[in-house]
Amino acid sequence: MSYQNTIELLKDKAEDLLKHECKTISKDLLHTPSPDFVDKIFVQSNRNTQVLRSLAAMYNHGRLAGTGYLSILPVDQGIEHTAGASFSPNPIYFDPENIIKLAIEGGSNAVATTFGNLAIMSRKYAHKIPFLVKLNHNELLTYPTKYEQIMFGSVEDAWNLGAVAVGATIYFGSEGSDRQIIEVSQAFERAHELGMACVLWCYTRNNDFKKDGINYETAADITGQANHLGVTIQADIIKQKLPDVNGGFTAINFSKSDKRMYTDLASDHPIDLCRYQLANCYMGRAGLINSGGESKGETDLAESVRSAVINKRAGGTGLILGRKAFQRPFDEGVKLLNAVQDVYLASEIGLA
Predict the structure, then answer these.
(1) Domain 3-345 carries which CATH code?
(2) Is the pTM of this model over 0.85?
(3) Where are the beta strands (DSSP E) in the chain?
(4) Is position 239 annotated as part of the catalytic site?
(5) Does residue 148 register a pLDDT over 90?
(6) Which end of the chain has fewer CB within 10 Å, C or N?
(7) Of 239, 241, 312, 324, which one is the catalytic site residue?
(8) Positive or negative, the Cα torsion across 280, 58, 52, 196?
(9) Contact of 87 with 67, CB cutoff 8 Å
(10) What whole-number distance in Å separates Cα of residue 275 and Cα of residue 28?
């Protein structure tokens, strides 16, 4: 997809997104994606040589290989949203081999999915695309519905099936967050010992984060702090939803905040909000990948490209996009993944 195609997809938002200059957190303060990102950031860290090799395996695979950017296909929705609801639009993905094939054909850096999906196809594909095993899930079969991330397998099992990375979710702000922080931090420590990279889904979840019709679970200040907790437990990459609002701490009246968070460090522009999230990832030392969100049909391509532009211009590392790709015909899913990757390959799109 050409740069002109990107402009056309962004429509009346093109100039605002492509010409915006951040006057909040300067781009000069950021550690931004580059071909030598692993060398610049992780060689000087406590990560062992096996972790460095695992990180390099992801950064050097797929269409974005050698750029410092990541395009990851995540398919854990069979558990998180039920298999029937997730795969009814395209039933071929009940078969996990097609999930892996989509990641390969789509030029992804890695495929992120469940123990079962990767284990059943491990010997055929572990050497063909980096595996990222999702360790925990909210199983969604308990009634009444609860939101509780629980472990589905061991770090050792992930290593045995050939994974180069593990992923986990913490529902920061939820009743179970203390347990999840302890479990995931211990799992990440073990994963690093075994030489695997660690990716954290830094989601916030609390019904009381919703006030006056606004859902502050995706507020920049709250998600930014979730990111900061995530890098504290040594996640190498942070996955976060794009912020679409700010001021959650003050609206709900909890935690601690400083007015400069909302004046000097952020504005209401989506790129500035995303940059605040990135600042909380040690100014980009841990890469920020934003999620693609649910599939809405005809607008998926435009929304995905918009998300990629925001993430890239904020200083982020890429997108982790699933439903918008696999809930459509296979060839269309490949094209959508490629369109997102083209944003990161476009030299015309730089830091804001």
Answers:
(1) 3.20.20.70
(2) yes
(3) 70-75, 110-113, 131-134, 136-137, 150-151, 165-172, 197-204, 210-211, 214-215, 237-240, 287-291, 318-320
(4) yes
(5) yes
(6) N
(7) 239
(8) positive
(9) no
(10) 12
